[in-house]
Specification:
mainly alpha; 6 helices; about 75% helix; globular
Amino acid sequence: MSRRPAQAEHPRDTGDQAPGDQVLTLPNLISFGRLLGVPLFLYLFLVARADVAAVVVLAIGGTTDWVDGWIARRLRQVSRLGELLDPLADRLYILATLLAFTAREVVPWQFTAALLARELLLLGSLTVLRRFGYGPPPVHYVGKTATFLLLAAFPVLLLATEWDAAATATAAIGWGLAWWGLVLYWVAGAMYVVQASRLVRAARGRGAAA
């Protein structure tokens, strides 16, 4: 992997398309909309206590995670800005949902801590990469799958706390999705760390040879 300017941790799966400098594209507008959904979700869930509306916002934000990338490839509107906005929206949705659900005791703080620890590990790896002039490693489908599972798990876990008649079944489904998402989130993080360590070793080897 060659040196390159820093880019998003998991950019859209763009195939062979080289990202351009476009700003006002349909995929980018979708990503902007997803970003605006984060504070809206927090307001609905923590302030207005409109749980149904909050879950709808969360579901839309999760499903459009795949839509913007598909449209970018389909319309050949892959852009550098999109590669930044897409993973930023993913991360903000997960962090906002975690903090909100922890505040209302839908998920325990230990689960939140496990996800935040992965973020800190990845942040350290990205910091080291930038010191050697590298951007983040390219996206892997494991990371995208983990994000999808987590965003699918949260509404089901909320439903388990509100729907007494099916609390056991919905809790089992929700926690099944959540734990698989957590495991894959850490697997994806470990893959990024391995990629980062290889790039750093290669950079040091070139430096020693020079």
